[in-house]
């Protein structure tokens, strides 16, 4: 049950830093889950998709909600269907296995080929959820008492776990993971990200948009600073709207694409009345004033 060690180098549409690339490859080599944290919109979920694409593997996504239980990812015993079949069906209901439906983790375990399993936003679940998965992620197996069958992974999946840090995760769970925090991209990397997603945009438009974008992020008091995904949407909206370059810096048009909180609108509008986003470069670093 060994993962074939293959090197992840990123993909054409996902720019990966050297540190992140190393973390991915170490987690694969050690057979440990990779826990990814970072601001919303920094590409945590897209990382798993990029790994699957880069290694030519199937991606299985387990989206976690506040009501999700660890059992949901293993299997579900459909007692309602069995009861219905016993009353109205015409086949033998004594075979319980036909009413056992695999969850996302069970699906990954039963795959004949290695897969990438994304456990997305694990911190949305209750505090016991990560601990309830410790055995399964360690031993790569789980027991189904209804059938007396132990499901063991045919191939160890590459497990990527994302968290927005809404809750602290248990220490016992953290000890079993490789951890990486995705820092918010510096302007140079951000320009490359924009170019990957929108290669035909005018350089000057991208430059003006990024100056305004990083100026907004530098403002104190914002409840939700705009993220990478919102910048990508904004530059596309500016192009579609035919917004002039001068207007981008002075007015920051289509602000609703970037900002999602009423209070943040007020902060930005009030600061625009007293400041203009300007950039100076000192020793390769961007200073906003």
Write up what this structure looks like.
Helices cover 43% and strands 17% of the residues. With 289 residues, it is α/β, with parallel strands linked by helices. A hairpin with a 2-residue loop joins strand 10 (279-282) and strand 11. A five-stranded parallel sheet has the order 2-5-8-1-9, with helices on both faces. 29% of the residues are buried. It has 14 helices and eleven strands. The protein folds into two domains: 18-182, Rossmann fold, CATH 3.40.50; 187-288, no CATH class. Mean pLDDT is 89; it is low at 279-289. Helix 9 (187-197) packs across helix 10, helix 10 (203-218) crosses helix 11 (228-241) and helix 10 packs parallel to helix 12. It has helices at residues 18-30, 44-55, 70-74, 79-88, 104-110, 128-132, 134-139, 171-174, 187-197, 203-218, 228-241, 245-251, 255-258, 262-272; strands at 34-38, 58-63, 75-77, 100-102, 115-120, 141-144, 149-152, 158-163, 178-182, 279-282, 285-288.
């Amino acid at each position: 049950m060994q993962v074939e060690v293959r090197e992840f180098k990123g993909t054409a549409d996902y720019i990966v830093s050297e540190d992140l690339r190393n973390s991915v490859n170490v987690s694969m080599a050690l057979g440990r889950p990779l826990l990814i944290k970072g601001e919303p919109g920094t590409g945590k979920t897209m990382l798993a998709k990029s790994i699957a694409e880069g290694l030519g593997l199937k991606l299985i996504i387990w989206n976690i909600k506040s009501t999700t239980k660890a059992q949901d990812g293993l299997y579900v015993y459909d007692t309602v269907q069995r009861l219905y079949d016993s009353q109205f069906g015409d086949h033998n209901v004594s075979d319980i296995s036909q009413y056992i439906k695999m969850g996302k983790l069970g699906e990954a375990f039963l795959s004949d080929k290695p897969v990438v399993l994304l456990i997305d936003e694990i911190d949305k679940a209750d505090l016991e959820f990560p601990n309830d998965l410790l055995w399964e992620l360690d031993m790569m197996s789980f027991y189904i008492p209804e059938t007396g069958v132990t499901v063991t992974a045919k191939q160890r999946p590459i497990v990527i776990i994302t968290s927005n840090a809404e809750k602290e995760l248990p220490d016992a769970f953290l000890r079993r993971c490789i951890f990486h925090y995705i820092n918010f991209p510096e302007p140079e990397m951000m320009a490359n990200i924009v170019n990957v997603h929108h290669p035909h945009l005018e350089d000057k438009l991208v430059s003006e948009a990024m100056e305004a974008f990083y100026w907004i992020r530098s403002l104190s008091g914002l409840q939700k600073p705009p993220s990478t995904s919102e910048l990508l949407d904004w530059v596309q909206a500016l192009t579609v709207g035919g917004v002039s370059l001068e207007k981008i810096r002075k007015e920051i048009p289509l602000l609703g694409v970037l900002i999602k909180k009423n209070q943040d609108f007020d902060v930005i509008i009030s600061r625009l009345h007293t400041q203009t986003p300007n950039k100076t470069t000192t020793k390769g670093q961007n200073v906003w004033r």
